[in-house]
Amino acid sequence: MDFNVKKLASGAGVFFTRAVQFTEEKLGQAEKTELDPHLENLISRADSTKNWTEKMLRQTEVLLQPNPSARIEEFIYDKLDKKLPSRTTNPELLGQYMLEAANEFGPGTPYGSTLITVGEYQKRLGGAERELLQTSAATFLTPLRNFLEGDWRTISKERRLMENRRLDLDICKARLKKAKQAEAKAALLSEEVDKAEHELRVAQTEFDRQAEVTRLLLEGISSTHLNHLRCLQDFAEAQATYYAQCHHYMQDLQRELNKCANAASGPHPPAAVCPDPVSKAFLSGPTSPGATVLSSSSQRPSTLAMEQPQLPVTGTRKAKVLYDYDAHDSSELSLLADELITVYTVPGMDPDWLIGERGNQKGKVPVTYLELLS
Question: What is the pTM (predicted TM-score) of this model?
Fold first, then answer.
């Protein structure tokens, strides 16, 4: 018990001495050992990395899950290290409501059958959103959290130790200075000066050692940036896949609705009964140097999109596949990302599709999954 009291008193004394030194430095009444510029730059860079990582993490969480209550629930389950129960996405819930409404209004009625069609596609959109959430959490959010809760905590701990060693060093410098001043006035024995010099050498050694440990950890921020760069690429790829899937589903839904409108309107053109709200949302698409990305826009002129070169009716072109695509029936051709295929169109064909050939295989392919090579 006596040992613990002495240790506690010693620790309190060290804390008080450091607090006095820190306060006097802030008031300009004590000298402070400055860190070398390289270490100061590393500290500034690390602080910026931590601050921006926190902001990006929070905003990505808001982007993927706008509901604050749901985010709090996810946070609690994560802290308890428990698996989060599966949650229905908003499009899936909307689709389920549409299907239930169709059963009540009658699935055989025009309104009921349309509700069934739109509801099924809403559930597909919800499935695509669920996949985006899962992929983004694994490839982007988790690495950012691991940095803040792991590497950054270690760095912060070592920085605090380095700051304490610096305070101890400056305290020893101040003691030695006072001892020499007292010795000059013959008020202090040389043994006291020797003791102060010894304490200074020890403090300098400990500070140098801790500064080197901290420097090595801070230089690891460069590796963190490389890791986060790969995470950003994975996140962007997940978003691109999600939006491509949504685009494809909405094109399919538009075709289904046009078929229904055509059947209901008889000789009238489909556009007179069923407007084209979906294709207008995708009038423009990404382009890259030396290549033309085919868009899903109709052939009507539009001030919202630049004119893009049209594929010759009988000509063939090479195209690069942007995303994986699974054929829905035997008339379509499955695609693998980054592969090259031959494409062409035929008179009267839906402008959102092309004929694709790969060796002996041939079938329809969606234009939004392709990059037409020049």
Answer: 0.63
